[in-house]
Write a structure and sequence with these properties.
By secondary structure, this protein is an alpha+beta fold. It has 3 domains: 3-313, ABC transporter type 1, transmembrane domain (ABC transporter transmembrane region fold, Up-down Bundle), CATH 1.20.1560.10; 335-566, P-loop containing nucleotide triphosphate hydrolases (Rossmann fold), CATH 3.40.50; 573-720, Jelly Rolls (Sandwich). 57% of the residues lie in helices and 14% in strands. The strands form 5 sheets. The protein has a 6-stranded mixed sheet with strand order 6-7-8-3-9-10, with helices on both faces. Helix 5 (112-154) runs antiparallel to helix 6. It is elongated, with a radius of gyration of 37 Å.
């Protein structure tokens, strides 16, 4: 879609106002041109002949025309102001609505700074071209055409000479147009990158401090600011030359016109009045031509902005709506996944031929190792994506055929990344509630076990949430999110790791609350904490995109399969009720590969050397490059492994959870850490230092031999990959 088409589509509904503006422009330009032409008759007929009647007649026409021109200008200003205002309002609404319809892939491609810059600087540029530049362009173009016609009527030979010379006014800007477009694009991209950095700095300020990234972010920002300066300076110089070259050409043309016009006067081929009118009119036409060339940089800048906004408008949603959508009935759904396959990339399937059925009102758990596909399956149920193959049906209706509004009314999804709006508790809870009465609010908050907490706050439900909920604890945010979901009275409640970032006490209480909702909603919960699946009616165990096992908790434990092995991995830790103290059993240590075969008495001594380390959300446990001397076992929580990239940013390369471990090489070697480990929520670690381990090795040398062999094997495996 070209910029002209986008402008016309924005103003076409204001046809009469647009016509009024064009008429007013014709009146203004006509008066300006003919008032200049009147000089010929004032000089040749009135002044030369000293004819008062002709002078009074011409003066009267000029006064009447001037008043008409003023009135036309006022009506024109009003009409173009309203047309441009409505047009940019509609374009902003269209862009906003279009972005709202987009799905996850869109927001993966465009970052916050990308979108904000299009709504701010790009939309401002479009606003200027619709409200100011385009009307000015129309006026100057009409003035140029009408002025040339009058110049030809006055003296065609002199006009042709001027037309040939005027080509110089446009050659320079035309040659610079390509460079101007490149410079404008570069400048906007530099601004966009800086906007993204600001967004990351504000949202990730705690992480930046934790990882000591202040200097690197400062360096990155300074580089981007310098890039804005360089591209801005280049753009300014190009724009300056694009406006200066036509002015230089106009000065040359003035000299040519005076010289050739004087020659015609001396030859009695041109009267003095005609020359004065021609000279004044030419100056007006020349100014119009210069103005058109001056507008060129603005038009180029706006064309780039139109291109960037249009890039968003051309993004099709990956979830097309059916031409004849089916409204879903507000009843507990029976969910069926039939031969479902899906991958975010075409060559990487995360789910492969998934087949499962969820009965109405049941409580279902999706579990499995990290990256097994369980969370992806939940996103398909929420219709954040559509299957590549197969189908998902609610009560027999394919989600691709379902009416989106009724689908969103039927279900609600609560994730571990709780988003709360910067408004009061009550407004956060009632923002999309099916029943927003005070009684319903208190009932939902009570079910989520957060009512008593809110009631004890000085402002109660009128407490304002600050910084997207950062002023609340993880448990409070999660309970509020669940209360908000319950207020919507969903028939299908989707839960994605809702206890992952919580301490053991909050986790236990929320698990009890979820269990109490059985039968009232169809519940599907994704969790890595297998202890929370005890109350589930049925469990699906995912592995490598397949359903490896399924059944009740008891059946899966008795099956001695994947579920049982995951259970064993997560157990053997004893946690205090407040989550501040933890202990690891000797039998659990025996499951670690580098302690395999070690006698139980030695492992019992080893378990007594571990200390408890509690972690807050986003807390850095170890940092890449620092010297390490501690080994960690994860008793509770999830942690991400980060590697620094060439641009100094950190990329997540792995995720660890209950029962996993890291830093074992620090028990025997004093080498820098190879990665950063950061808590993704409340975490409990069991830690042992090299000094303590060394004293134990003196009594049990086989510990060192076993650890050396295991580490050597792992290093060889890593090298061969």
């Amino acid at each position: 879609m070209k910029s002209g088409k986008l402008i016309s589509s924005s103003v076409k509904k204001q046809k009469w106002l647009s016509i009024l503006f064009v008429i007013s422009v014709f009146i203004e330009i006509g008066y300006a041109s003919f008032s200049t032409l009147s000089l010929k008759y004032i000089v040749d007929d009135a002044f030369t002949n000293k004819d008062w009647q002709v002078f009074i007649f011409i003066l009267s026409l000029l006064l009447i025309g001037g008043l008409l021109s003023i009135a036309a200008g006022a009506f024109g200003d009003y009409s173009i102001g309203k047309v441009s205002g409505i047009a940019i309002r509609n374009l902003r609404k269209r862009l906003f609505q279009h972005i709202q319809k987009q799905t996850a892939p869109f927001f993966s491609r465009f970052r916050v700074g990308d979108l904000v810059s299009r709504f701010s600087s790009d939309m401002d540029a479009i606003d200027r071209v619709i409200s100011t530049t385009s009307p000015f362009l129309i006026k100057e173009a009409l003035a140029l055409v009408l002025g040339l016609g009058l110049l030809l009527s006055l003296e065609w030979r002199l006009t042709l000479v001027m037309l040939l010379g005027s080509s110089l006014m446009f050659i320079g800007p035309k040659l610079l147009q390509g460079k101007a477009e490149q410079a404008s694009e570069s400048y906007k991209q530099s601004e966009e990158q800086f906007s993204n950095t600001i967004d990351e700095m504000i949202k990730g300020h705690s992480t930046i401090k934790n990882l000591n990234l202040g200097a690197s972010f400062q360096q990155q920002a300074e580089g981007q600011i310098s890039a804005i300066y360089r591209s801005g300076l280049r753009l300014h110089l190009i724009h300056t030359w694009m406006t200066r070259l036509p002015l230089i050409s106009l000065l040359l043309l003035n000299g040519i016109m005076i010289g050739f016009g004087g020659y015609l006067i001396f030859q009695d081929a041109l009267t003095i009045g005609s020359f004065m009118a021609f000279f004044t009119l030419f100056m007006s036409v020349g100014q119009s031509a210069t103005n058109l060339s001056v507008l060129l940089p603005e038009m180029i800048d706006s064309a780039v902005s139109f291109k960037r906004v249009n890039e968003l408008l051309e993004q099709d949603t990956k979830l097309p709506q059916s031409a004849h959508p089916i409204k879903l009935e507000p009843v507990l759904p029976q969910v069926h996944l039939q031969q479902v396959s899906f991958g975010y990339e075409s060559n990487a399937a995360l789910l492969k031929q998934i087949e499962l059925t969820i009965a109405p009102g049941s409580y279902i758990a999706f579990v499995g190792p990290s990256g097994s596909g369980k969370s992806t399956a939940l996103k398909l149920l929420a219709r954040f994506y559509d299957p590549v193959q197969g189908s998902i049906t609610f009560n027999g209706v394919d989600l691709r055929e379902a009416e989106d509004a009724s689908l969103r009314e039927m279900m609600t999804m609560v994730t571990q990344d709780t988003f709360l709006f910067n408004t009061t508790i009550a407004e956060n809870l009632q923002i999309a509630a099916a029943d927003n009465s005070q009684e319903a609010l208190v009932d939902a908050a009570s079910q989520a076990q957060i009512h008593s907490t809110i009631a004890n706050w000085p402002m109660g439900y009128n407490t304002v949430i600050q910084h997207d909920g950062a002023s609340l604890s993880g448990g409070e945010r999660q309970r509020l999110a669940i209360a908000r979901a319950l207020l919507r009275k969903p028939k299908l409640l989707l839960l994605d790791e809702v206890t992952a970032a919580l301490d053991p006490i909050n986790e236990s209480e929320i698990n009890q609350m979820i269990a109490s909702l059985k039968g009232k909603h169809t519940i599907v919960s994704v969790t890595h904490r297998l202890a929370s699946t005890r109350d589930a009616d049925y469990i699906y165990v995912f592995q490598d995109g397949h359903i490896a096992e399924q059944g009740s908790f008891t059946d899966l434990m008795e099956g001695q399969g994947l579920f049982h092995s995951l259970w064993e991995k997560q157990h053997g830790f004893q946690l205090s009720e407040d989550g501040q103290l933890a202990a690891v059993e000797a039998e659990r240590l025996a499951m670690l590969p580098f302690f395999a075969g070690i006698e139980l008495p030695a492992l019992q001594q080893l378990s007594s050397l571990f200390t408890t380390v509690t972690c807050q959300p986003d807390e850095v446990v170890i940092r890449e490059g620092e010297q390490g001397n501690t080994f960690y076992l994860i008793a509770h929580g999830r942690f991400e492994i980060l590697k620094q990239q060439a641009d100094l940013s950190n990329k997540r390369v792995a995720m660890l959870q209950d029962g996993d471990y890291f830093g074992e090489i620090a028990l025997i070697r004093n080498i820098p850490r190879t990665a950063t480990v950061k808590s993704m929520g409340h975490g409990i670690l069991m830690a042992i230092r090299r000094e303590s381990f060394g004293r134990l090795v003196e009594q049990h040398p086989q510990l060192l031999d076993s650890l050396e062999r295991t580490l050597l094997k792992r290093m060889k495996e890593a090298t061969s990959q």
